[in-house]
Amino acid sequence: MVQFNLPKNSKVLKGSYFKDTTGSKNIKKINIYRWNPDKNENPKIDTFEVDITKCGNKVLDILNKIKNEIDPSLTYRRSCAHGVCGSCAMNVDGINTLSCMKSHKDINGDINIYPLPHLKVIKDLVADLSTLYRQYESIEPWLKIKEIKSKKIEINQSKQNRKKLDGLYECIMCACCSTSCPSYWWNGEKYLGPAVLLQAYRWIIDSRDEERKERLKVVGDKLKLYGCHTIMNCTNSCPKGLNPAKAISSLKKMLAKN
Ligand code: SF4
Ligand code: SF4
Ligand code: FES
What we know:
Blueprint (H helix, E strand, L loop, with lengths): L12 E6 L8 E8 L9 E8 L7 H12 L18 E4 L2 E4 L12 E4 L6 E3 L2 E2 L2 H9 L20 H5 L18 H6 L5 H12 L7 H8 L13 H5 L6 H14 L1
Parallel strand pairs: 1-3, 2-6
Antiparallel strand pairs: 2-3, 4-5, 4-6, 7-8
Helix pairs in contact: 5-6, 5-8
The site of FE2/S2 (inorganic) cluster (FES) has 12 residues, from loops.
């Protein structure tokens, strides 16, 4: 049986309670994971009472309100606030999602917010994605052509071939899928995970790319690709409605034919 030795500070403690000061009747309790690397303390769960009558609809609006009005030290990533940059990915109510897309009105009762699971935490809700970015870099996510004949040349693509990229090009590398994949949790250093494999597939089937064979060789590895056991958590968690599990199975089929 596998045994896990958790570090001494792994116990998550009860943290501070920030009571509402507005007297509003429309209060929601928000429980947020907090950890500060500069303090030699265990992680804790702080609870904030938030007046949601004066708050936008999304979970990110709640976080912004807490940061602006209650605790400026709360740390999380965000940028576009429109589901485009992928930076606000976190675990809300047990599901990995984009906090700028997730409506808090859909959540009954308290809202529990944690960083993306099974990653090192940098601070509060900010998880360390450097391994995933290194893996992304390893699949060389850019168009590769053997010889550029002229700087002015356009590389045309038929409508049918362009259509093959639908359901793939929309991926914003938020990592919700990879961090919900059990295979990636346990073997994330070697297995590329659904986000990176979907991206690999996106470049492999791009009709303009001339290094399909080489790309397939790079991902067609026992550990990098075949760590996927078709558990489907990835597809269920994608906030953009994409299907990384299907992309992985298409990669496997392509390799089987080659
Ligand atoms: S496939 Fe979906 S969940 Fe995975 S990185 Fe792309 S957008 Fe995020
Ligand atoms: S289908 Fe594959 S990639 Fe997706 S969650 Fe399952 S094991 Fe992970
Ligand atoms: S802030 Fe950009 S996707 Fe949420």
